[in-house]
Amino acid sequence: MKDNLILAVESSCDETAAAVVKNGRQVLSNVISTQIALHAQFGGVVPEIASRKHIEKINQVIRQALAEAEITLDDLDGIAVTYGPGLVGPLLVGLSAAKAIAFAKDIPLIGVHHIEGHISANYIEHEDLKPPFMSLVVSGGHTHLVYVKDYGVYEIIGFTRDDAAGEAFDKVARAIGLGYPGGPKIDKLSKEGNPEAIHFPRAKVADSKYDFSFSGLKSAVLNYINSCEMKQQPYHQADVAASFQKAVTDVLVDNTMEALKDLGLKEIVLAGGVASNSSLREAFVKRCDAEQVRLYYPSPVFCTDNAAMIGVAGYYEFQKGITHGLDLNAVPNLKLGQKVI
Ligand code: KG4
Ligand code: ZN
Q1: Ligand 1 in contact with 90 (CB < 6 A)?
Q2: Whether residue 78 has its Cβ less than 6 Å from ligand 1
Q3: Do domains 5-121+303-319 and 131-297 have the same CATH topology?
Q4: Is 296 helix (H, G, I), strand (E, B) or coil?
Q5: Label partner for 210 (CA 20 to 30 A): which of 33, 68, 101, 193?
Q6: Protein residue closest via CA to atom 7 of ligand 1
Q7: How confident is the model at residue 204 (pLDDT cuts 50, 70, 90)?
Q8: Among all ligands shown, which has an atom nearest to the Cα of 32?
Q9: Does position 341 have pLDDT exceeding 60, yes or no?
């Protein structure tokens, strides 16, 4: 059978990325041009600057992805692109590039949901993984518990009522002077701290046992720092980082295990930037071993934003006959499935 080759493009936030995916799960190239250093001086992503940088980089990144895969545009069976959720300007850059290629080469355009991409990143390195399973998607913009019933069939079981997990990491990192992006920095510093040093709250959402809330935790950390500063008492930065990280991890693990049990599932799939957090991974490994649950997570490069994951998700959409017209628009608040429980 002829190989299926999909070129994928991702530009929803601060990474300009392109990849070539063969037969759904084999990554032939995965090029990522990150803007992290550019935004670090502002303490977070500046949408207008991000859009401009995507425009500068997109063609170069696509060209490199094709070259590394040793193919040309003529070899492609389709082009997959993130069309939401994300920042509208950045999304439009990738979408326009993808549409131009689809039009010029007369190949199908496959619009992909960014979160669907994050979940699908797990198919790259785990050949045996297939739905159904429970996925915890934890990134800078999202914290979702998703019941993946089949390829492309999702039900949101729980979500954050306020900050996303990654957002909480970034805000706390800024408060304790670590800079942007905070997640990896807190992860590293926590290794030198005591996670039991300070007890920060583990928020439960009153009317839903699967939902998350991180803004109270963030405030508790800020209050702790302020009260130390007011008393002119130095605080131990690594203990604050480790204790905060433990509080986030406990809630993420508890809610996921509870949902898994209630739905009678046996497999957990971690996804998104925060899924590369070492303490979160360790905590899940421990619980999953104890409760005989299979755990999957991607390598760090496939946790944070990349285009390979979009190519994988795009392949499964394509298999189901889902393609889009050239009038496909960016949808900044695109929803994934519907909340049913
Ligand atoms: O998935 P992603 O690249 O972008 C979004 O779709 O949002 O996730 C970025 C987020 C940032 O908030 C970053 O601080 C967090 O993932 N992150 C981490 C780690 N690596 C990245 N958070 C905790 N620990 C990490 N090791
Ligand atoms: Zn993402």
Answers
A1: no
A2: no
A3: yes
A4: strand
A5: 193
A6: 140
A7: confident
A8: 1
A9: no
In the chain, where are the structural domains located?
A: 5-121+303-319, 131-297
Class for the domain spanning 5-121+303-319: alpha beta
The C-alpha atoms of residue 198 and residue 44 are separated, in whole angstroms, by 27
pLDDT computed for residue 91 by the predictor:
98
Residue 97 CA to ligand 1 center (angstroms) comes to 26
Count, residues in the chain:
341
Q: DSSP per residue over 118-165, as a string?
A: HHHHHHHH-TT--SSEEEEEE-SS-EEEEEEEETTEEEEEEEBSSS-H
Is the minimum distance from the CB of 181 to ligand 1 under 6 angstroms? yes
pTM, two decimals, is: 0.95
Q: CB under 8 Å to 331, separation ≥6 — which residues?
A: 83, 84, 85, 91
**327's tokens:** 């009038």
Which tokens sit at 46?
């500046």
Phi, psi dihedrals of residue 306, rounded to the nearest 5°: -155, 165
Residue nearest to atom 10 of ligand 1 (CA): 140
Residue 240: closest CA among 142, 169, 179: 169
* pLDDT tens digits, 205-216: 888 899 999 999
Alpha carbon distances (Å) from 176 to 37, 46, 100, 195:
19, 21, 45, 16
The finding on whether 314 has its CB within 6 A of some atom of ligand 1 is no
Q: Could you tell me if 271 and 118 are in contact, meaning their C-beta atoms sit under 8 angstroms apart?
A: yes
Q: Compute, in angstroms, the gap from residue 44 CA to the centroid of ligand 2.
A: 15
Residues 205/211, Cβ–Cβ less than 8 Å: yes
Q: How far is the CA of 231 from the centre of ligand 1 (A)?
A: 33
Nearest to 21 by CA among 135, 110, 139, 132: 110
Is domain 131-297 classified as CATH 3.30.420.40?
yes
Identify residue 260 by its one-letter amino acid code.
L
Output helix, strand, coil percentages for the chain, rounded to the nearest 5.
45, 20, 35
Instruction: Give the mean model confidence (pLDDT) for residues 170-192.
Output: 94
